[in-house]
Design goal:
The structure holds 2 protein chains of 2 kinds.
Chain A (H helix, E strand, L loop, with lengths): L3 E3 L3 E4 L5 E3 L1 E3 L5 E8 L3 E8 L6 E2 L6 E7 L2 E6 L8 E8 L8 E2 L3 E5 L1
Chain B lengths: L2 E5 L2 E5 L4 E8 L4 E8 L5 E7 L5 E3 L5 E5 L4 E6 L8 E9 L6 E2 L3 E6 L1
Parallel strand pairs in B: 2-11
Antiparallel strand pairs in B: 1-3, 3-8, 4-5, 4-9, 6-7, 7-8, 9-10, 9-11
Classes of the chains: A mainly beta, B mainly beta.
């Protein structure tokens, strides 16, 4: 089974802190994605990556950055956390282009106080 | 650009009744369509997908969905609801020539005894 592991299930951070959310997948997937999930808004794409050291902006990249130094790891960075970034963050991975679904991690619920 | 609209943010059915969750998509190219389920405090799990071929697709837990191009719909059904079906369901779309998936806002299914 493909496994996508997010390093933390719950995080509480202070406004202005730099926050790192880590995601690791173990099936050699080319593609990795970061979404945030908010009630009534579904999943919104923040950033994605099709290859090592490659990144593309999704629909809501403002206030976030990403890093993909190794194929299996995709990190989401909140440069200066704000209360409106309180959310559930979901990481996903998939094979290359085609009709493949995504495999999701269990999510990180981030609260910024 | 692709998008998904899920009609009804909440659906409530009685145990044993038909489940119908509605999804309409917009895509300028032939779409790949997906349904995911999310149980509380978990990530998303793939229920079923349509890529090509047979328009009626069967998934896990007795769910199925039918791709209707003329109606741009991909509604999810299950003949008889079970208490364990209570969860949030997300419809998603992506196209063959890219890899970023777009999700609907989700439908929360409640099953009454």
């Amino acid at each position: 089974d493909v496994k996508v592991t997010q390093s933390s299930r719950y995080l509480v951070k202070r406004t202005g802190e730099k926050v790192f959310l880590e995601c690791v997948q173990d099936m050699d997937h080319e593609n990795m994605f970061w979404y945030r999930q908010d009630p009534g808004l579904g999943l919104r794409l923040i950033y994605f990556s099709y290859d090592v050291k490659m990144k593309e902006k999704g629909d809501i990249p403002e206030g976030y950055s990403v890093s993909r130094e190794k194929k299996e790891r995709f990190s989401l960075i909140l440069e200066s956390a704000s209360t409106n970034q309180t959310s559930m963050y979901l990481c996903a991975s998939s094979w290359d282009r085609g009709g493949y679904g995504y495999t999701f991690g269990s999510g990180t619920r981030l609260t910024v106080v | 650009a692709q998008s998904v609209t899920q009609l009804g943010s909440h659906v409530s059915v009685s145990e044993g009744a038909l489940v119908l969750l509605r999804c309409n998509y917009s895509s300028s190219v032939p779409p790949y369509l997906f349904w995911y389920v999310q149980y509380p405090n978990q990530g998303l799990q793939l229920l079923l997908k349509y890529t090509t071929g047979a328009t009626l697709v069967k998934g896990i837990n007795g769910f199925e969905a039918e791709f209707k191009k003329s109606e741009t719909s991909f509604h999810l059904t299950k003949p008889s609801a079970h208490m364990s079906d209570a969860a949030e369901y997300f419809c998603a779309v992506k196209s063959a020539n890219n890899n970023d998936m777009r999700f609907g806002a989700g439908t929360r299914l409640t099953v009454k005894p």
